[in-house]
Amino acid sequence: MRRLLVVLATTLLLAGCGTAASTGPAWEGMRVENCGRTQVIAEPPRRVVSLNQHATEILLALGLGDRLVGTAYPDDRTPPASVAADYARVPLLAVEYPSAERILEAEPDLVVGGYSSAFDEGEGRGREALESKGIATLLLSESCATGPTGMPALLADIDMFGSVLGLRERASVLAADIEGRVRAVEQRLAGVPPVDVFVYDSGEQAAFTLGGHGVGNDALTRAGARNVFADVPEGFADVSWEQVASRAPRAIVLVDYLAKPVHDKRAYLEGHPLASGTPAVRADRYSTVPLVELTEGIRFPDAVERLARDLHGA
Asked: 0.85 exceeded by the pTM?
């Protein structure tokens, strides 16, 4: 959590106006330490660009509204109902990552990345490059974690965004809702033995799966699952099909996103000489989870609830 430390230097107003009251107290400057970078944000950003869907959904859930002037790289076509109408109004800068020039055209004073790939130095949109132009940058902490991460990091990031954007009250409500929903599932599953699960994202020569360091692994654990590749010290990683077979998962989670239909992934597993022999495939035991639910975002409790229902009927 040290990288998420937000140290506030605030100047509270004795007599505020309506605008100040709606966004939180005014301040002289906010010092933010995020993923190895430190910067001072002089005032709540008025024009924000978000470069991944799960980051965009967090900002909309906080009530950022028309201050969000651009997004990019959607992973699915169905944002949660709570933010869907607002999401539809945000300009799509690119189907994947926009060029640095396209980002600058939106005139942001803050750019938020969901994945570290959002800030590609080689493409001219690195954090240092943007900050040199007076544009603040923030990255969801899952992408710079050096060890296992999960719901605590999500809640800390929500608090950070609430402080930076002047939306602290909304951040508090959102964090409480996420934590409350997850705790309710954990209580229902108390004492229930976990199910060994293999998460299949993609891949044929090797299986691209969920490792033990990502938010998705924490969602599995809280939903009564045991990730058979939790010992892999990455968020996502390639593993061999021999490893998949030897770990004998009893259920399979298919990761759903735009790049490849889920039914193709399932068909591949059922025709694979090694995967087809696992207890999960033989028992036809699958759960389909959108990629956005297995990354750091407001859909974290959706993943926990979905997995608990699919694996345990709870």
From this structure: yes
